[in-house]
Design goal:
309 residues; mainly alpha; MetI-like fold; 2 domains; two-stranded antiparallel ribbon; 14 helices; flat
């Protein structure tokens, strides 16, 4: 009993020390945010309550910008729907693909480092180059993907898919393109997998568990911290989708890929309406915060290795 209490006290002290070190390592970013980020953040909050066209003096109009967005702007709701569609489809698919890649690459074979590097490389490719590449791959008439699928089209007697040129497939096309960068989350999963003690697997083998059972009962439960981390980051990053649609589809066809970030960009740059653009930014912050807080309730299903009750 005394030994258990001592272990709990030492674990608590270790966690406090880790928290302090975490703040120390994060302090450069926190200082940068406070010095260079605090004023623009507060300024955008003020501008969201004003009429400001990038020139002249902002004129206070209270909640008029928010009322215009919520009650008089159908494009606002279209862009929000498109963004939510992207988040709720891309996040789970990205998690699944990243986990599967990590499971496949968590082996000790010759040249495994090369394979891991190849799967991670798309994450260092610029978004412009990646978008142009996938424009060619998804091109309806001569793109490689439709060329590969042509036997299927002929068998089913159907026309080649329009992909990003079809309003019913354009959002899905961008989601599928985003899976090319699943190597980023794969690296995090691999790091967590390799931190799992081999003792667990050896004990499972003695009990007669096969590879699939070990994956379900040991690997995946002990990967939940990294899965949860990538889940939260995927939600936050998913709400910021913009560049791919700007390069590939220009928000079309029929505004099907006119994401929230794209509309905010148009409000700010093309319409010179900094007041409504600032209001949109704060609405996006609140929506992202609410969905993230809801996602954080899943933390109770996360198993942290070494945690003791």
């Amino acid at each position: 009993m005394a030994k258990n209490k001592q272990n709990k006290n030492s674990l608590g002290a270790l966690r406090k020390q880790e928290k302090k070190l975490g703040y120390v390592f994060a302090s450069p970013w926190l200082l940068g945010l406070g010095i260079f980020g605090a004023f623009p953040i507060l300024a955008s909050l003020y501008l969201s309550f004003t009429r400001y066209r990038m020139v002249g003096t902002p004129a206070w109009i209270g909640l008029a910008n928010y009322r215009a967005l919520f009650f008089n702007d159908s494009i606002f709701w279209t862009s929000l729907y498109n963004t939510l569609y992207h988040v709720f489809l891309s996040v789970p698919l990205g998690l699944i693909v990243g986990i599967l890649l990590a499971l496949l690459l968590n082996t000790r074979i010759r040249g495994i480092g090369i394979y891991r590097t190849l799967f991670y490389l798309p994450n260092v490719v610029s978004i412009v180059a990646m978008s142009l590449l996938w424009l060619w791959l998804f091109q309806p008439n001569f793109g490689l993907i439709n060329q590969v699928l042509s036997p299927v089209y002929n068998l089913l007697d159907m026309e080649p898919l329009g992909w990003y040129r079809a309003s019913n497939l354009s959002k899905l096309t961008i989601v599928l393109m985003g899976l090319w960068t699943a190597g980023g989350s794969m690296i995090i999963y691999l790091a967590q997998m390799q931190d799992i003690p081999r003792d667990y697997y050896e004990a499972a083998e003695i009990d007669g568990a096969n590879g699939f059972q070990q994956t379900i009962k040991i690997t995946l439960p002990l990967m939940t911290p990294s899965i949860f981390f990538n889940f939260i980051m995927g939600i936050i990053l998913g709400f910021q989708v913009f560049a791919v649609a700007y390069i590939m589809t220009q928000g079309g066809p029929g505004r099907s890929t006119y994401y929230y970030g794209y509309y905010l960009f148009d409000k700010m740059i093309n319409d010179n309406n900094m007041g409504q653009a600032s209001a949109m930014a704060w609405v996006l912050l609140v929506v992202t915060l609410i969905i993230t807080l809801l996602a954080l309730t899943l933390n109770k299903y996360v198993f942290y290795l070494g945690e003791q009750d």
